[in-house]
Amino acid sequence: MTGPSSSSSGSAAKVARHGRSKSTSTYCCHSRPGQESAPSATANNAGRSSGEEDEKDGGVPFYVNRTGFPIESVTWERMWSHVARVHPDGQEMVDRIRNAALLAKQPVPSVPNFKPSMSVPDWLHAVQNYMKNLQYNHTGTQFFEIRKTRPLCGLMESAREMIRESLPIKCLEAVILGIYLTNGLTSVERFPISFKTQFSGHHFHHVVLGVYCNGRYGTLGMSRRADLMDKALSFRTLSELVFEFEDSYRRYQHTMKKVKIGLYVPHNPHVFQPIEWKYLVLNPCRQGREDMRKELEKHGRDMRMKILKSSSAQSPIKERARGKSLSPRRRQGVSPQRRQHLHRRDKSPAALDRKPAELSTLNDGYQIRI
After folding, report:
1. What is the mean pLDDT of the chain?
2. pLDDT digits (tens, 9 = 90+) for 316-351
3. Catalytic residue flag (residue 223)
4. Is 171 known to be catalytic?
5. Which of 25, 155, 353, 354 has its CA 20 to 30 A from that of 227?
6. Residue from 223, 239, 248, 254 carrying the catalytic annotation
7. Is 206 a catalytic residue?
8. H-helix or E-strand containing 197?
9. Which residues partner with 274 through β-bridges?
10. Which candidate, 18, 12, 8, places its Cα nearest to that of 105?
């Protein structure tokens, strides 16, 4: 998040050891790409006419593997070309890894198993340790395409793929994986927190998964910086948590430009509703800390009371007023002859003597809603 790092050799070595995909043995002798930023856009996966740079973080575009696994040759070669450009040892390091006769076997992290005896902080710690063991991706190619508008059920499939492939991840993938691994903890509420910062004339983006349980806030996530990822469940208010991140950014001479707070993510992994990423947007440069604190506390209180609804959720059905027609459009479409027939029928003696049936006499199992 704060720029490319020489640690790309570590991610590249892990990638090389695993091969292009665990799901195929054809490419086991090759290496595997990592995940986040890359400086140029010249090549592309099949189905894309120009480069696959989707974002620019700090003025540096990064690529996304859009065609899944096994990774295509174009994406594969482009990743190594980028690593050779940004790593201090350049092409020499790339050749050393790719031409090695035998690479050290990289351990595959075990997925944490929740036990009833585990407390919530212990489980969150286990989830964070699992993501750390996957390692942060410095290769400049994002392995897993995460579309924020995709339904939650589809994003959970991406999380399962992350576990299956066991590749290094970045901040956005960590949020999706954190949601997946905490779906069973109904006492823990999860929501995204996004940051936009500025340093040396460039803008940087970062996202973590906010968590709330028993009156305390914390986070799960991944970053190049240890103080910009997970936070323990120790913050009494949402504003305290956000200001802690702002102070951490200041230590790296970053100026916070925007903070975006989403809504609680449902625990049902089969929901077709997308995640609400930015229900509340704050601008620290224009708002003082006191104003931000008030907005954050109101947002946190409203979320706890479950009165906020995602913009993608269905609007509630309006309650009908008593005596209104069940289908007013039908009445508008009635022909003049039909209206005349109804008028005559209503005036007949039989109709005048007829009484409406009581609900108790309706034997078809239905009741009239008014």
Report:
1. 78
2. 434 444 444 444 444 445 555 555 554 444 444 444
3. yes
4. yes
5. 155
6. 223
7. yes
8. strand 189-199
9. 151
10. 18
User: What is the C-alpha to C-alpha distance for residues 157 and 176, in angstroms, rounded to an integer?
Assistant: 10
CB atoms within 10 A of CB 61: 17
Q: Which helix (H) or strand (E) holds 324?
A: none
CA distance 74 to 76: 5
Active-site residue (options: 171, 194, 205, 299): 171
Q: Which residues contact 284 (CB under 8 A, 6 or more apart)?
A: 246, 256, 257, 258, 259, 292
pLDDT of residue 115: 85
Strand partners, 142: 64
What's the pLDDT tens digit per position in 252-281? Answer: 999 999 999 999 999 999 999 999 999 999
Q: In what order do the strands lie in the sheet with 141-142?
A: 53-57, 60-64, 141-142
Q: Please name which of 175, 181, 176, 173 lies closest in space to residue 144, comparing C-alpha atoms.
A: 173
DSSP three-state, residue 15: helix
Do 238 and 300 contact (CB within 8 A), yes or no? yes
Residues 104 and 331: their CA atoms lie apart, in Å, by 77
Rounded mean pLDDT, 51-67: 66
Which one from 138, 206, 254, 299 is the annotated catalytic residue? 206
Q: What is the pLDDT of residue 311?
A: 64
Segment (H or E) for 181: helix 171-181
